[in-house]
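$ ./design --mode recover --in tokens.txt
reading tokens...
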């Protein structure tokens, strides 16, 4: 079978999408010699040469998130945060879309390639299905607020690692506190396990509301766990379960203060 070769630009794009973030040079690099250098510097410092000033520790995500008093500050803090490796391979921080004063807040897992390119959550194939899910309960994306647990695209669209979710958790916790919605819709197991700290599978958890609480919320928020639209694209039969979950969300929105 004849396949046409990739152009260098296409090959480069492919490597970046797969998470390659470092090129191998023409000349070999002796990494043992490189790692010996800091030790040599420290040794010289003990001999009376003043040690180089220590770099200050980068601010933690918890510290930055807590300091944000509004969504604009939170966005700036997330864009400035350098503690998560995902930031090195993604194109940009995907903060949110929709209306921050909406009563429904939707939280997915992490941006994919389309979201990373456009800087908005749920704009690819899953997003198209999410739009139809919202339409089924009389809403569009301007009447909801949409974000993700992890705001940076994992390379090659892999699942975020637990350590990456952990680093992002203070940001999404603060995000929910600042939006303070009437109802939360949590899409997919990763979002549910991160925010509700429940280990049961999404299949067991979906179908009813679970209270979501955090220290700076005045009251718990009813959260509906449901299947992720990407799962529904692969498993259309599960759409009927999500339909039931969405009807409960509609009822809750209509009755919640
Ligand atoms: N999947 C998600 O969980 N979030 C997005 O923004 C896109 C796809």
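writing sequence...
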């Amino acid at each position: 079978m004849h396949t046409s070769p990739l152009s260098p630009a296409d090959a480069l794009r492919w490597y970046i999408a797969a998470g390659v973030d470092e090129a191998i040079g023409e000349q070999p690099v002796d990494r043992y010699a490189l790692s010996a250098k800091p030790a040599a510097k420290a040794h010289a410092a003990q001999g009376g040469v003043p040690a180089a000033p220590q770099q200050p520790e980068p601010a933690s995500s918890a510290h930055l998130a807590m300091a944000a008093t509004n969504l604009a500050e939170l966005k700036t803090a997330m864009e400035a945060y350098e503690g998560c490796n995902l930031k090195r391979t993604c194109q940009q921080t995907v903060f949110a879309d929709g209306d921050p004063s909406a009563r429904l807040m939707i939280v997915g897992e992490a941006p994919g390639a389309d979201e990373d390119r456009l800087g908005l959550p749920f704009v690819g194939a899953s997003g198209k299905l999410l739009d139809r899910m919202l339409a089924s309960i009389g809403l569009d994306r301007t009447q909801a607020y949409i974000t993700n647990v992890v705001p940076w695209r994992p390379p090659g669209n892999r699942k975020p690692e637990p350590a990456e979710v952990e680093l992002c958790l203070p940001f999404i916790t603060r995000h929910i506190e600042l939006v303070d919605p009437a109802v939360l819709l949590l899409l997919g197991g990763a979002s549910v396990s991160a925010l509700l700290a429940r280990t049961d599978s999404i299949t067991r958890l979906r179908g009813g509301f679970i209270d979501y609480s955090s220290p700076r919320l005045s009251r718990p928020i009813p959260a509906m766990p449901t299947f992720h639209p990407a799962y529904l694209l692969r498993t259309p039969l599960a759409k009927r379960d999500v339909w039931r979950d969405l009807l409960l969300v509609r009822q809750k929105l209509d009755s919640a203060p």
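exit 0
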